Amino acid sequence: MDIAFEFASWISPEFKLYVIEDYRRLKADESSRLSLGWNEKRLFSKINYQIHTEAVKSNLIPDIAGKGAHFTYATEADVLNVALFGKTAKQWRDENLGKLGNIRDAATLRQLVVLANLESMNAQLIKAGASREERAEYLNAMAREQFAALEGNPTLKALERKLQIDDADSKKQ
Fold first, then answer.
1. CB proximity list for 138: less than 8 A, separation 6 or greater
2. How far apart are alpha carbons 122 and 133 in whole angstroms?
3. Fewest CB within 10 angstroms: 46, 65, 91, 92, which?
4. Residue 124 neighbours by CB distance under 10 Å
5. What is d(CA 118, CA 130) in angstroms, rounded to the nearest whole number?
6. How confident is the prediction along the chain (173 residues), in pLDDT tens digits per residue?
7. H or E element that contains 72
8. Which of 69, 70, 79, 92 is nearest to 118 (CA)?
């Protein structure tokens, strides 16, 4: 790109500015398209996020503020992470040093669909007063059952193919 900028400068300073502005616009468009596929995937897990955090806030941390509340939210997120992925967010980060994002950013579409369901169920279990250990065991069994039920689901497969095609198209541009 440096050579193109220098060539544009040789033609005229105005042309160089035009090329630089157009290059920035193209990069912004590319970045926007790349993040779109990620946003579509993560939407599945974010749908029930508020339901889950509201249950945590209302039932597990009504009198805790600050770091204690943050710790409770993180612990509850890890209950879901362990039930679904078999590891905590920290364990994933330690295994994936240098990678951007987090455990849920790296999830498959099927995992994100199951995660959305687990968030909703965990909220109900919290409201019912189930212990963390009981919830973890139940959610893990639920995750395994749902993975098996979604195996070969034609709608999910079609959506995964669409996202793969969109990702490939955005990388080409």
1. 121, 125, 130
2. 12
3. 65
4. 13
5. 14
6. 678 777 777 788 888 787 788 777 777 665 554 454 556 666 666 666 777 788 888 887 765 566 667 788 889 999 999 999 999 999 999 999 877 778 888 888 889 889 989 999 999 999 999 999 999 999 999 999 999 999 988 888 888 787 776 666 655 55
7. helix 67-85
8. 79
Q: Quote the distance between the C-alpha of residue 145 and its chain's center.
A: 22
Q: Is residue 123 within 8 Å of 52, Cβ to Cβ?
A: yes
Residue 75 three-state SS:
helix
In sequence order, which residues have a C-beta less than 8 Å from that of residue 161 and are 6 or more positions away?
none
Fill in the amino acid letter for 96: N
| Residue from 75, 83, 158 nearest 115 by CA | 83
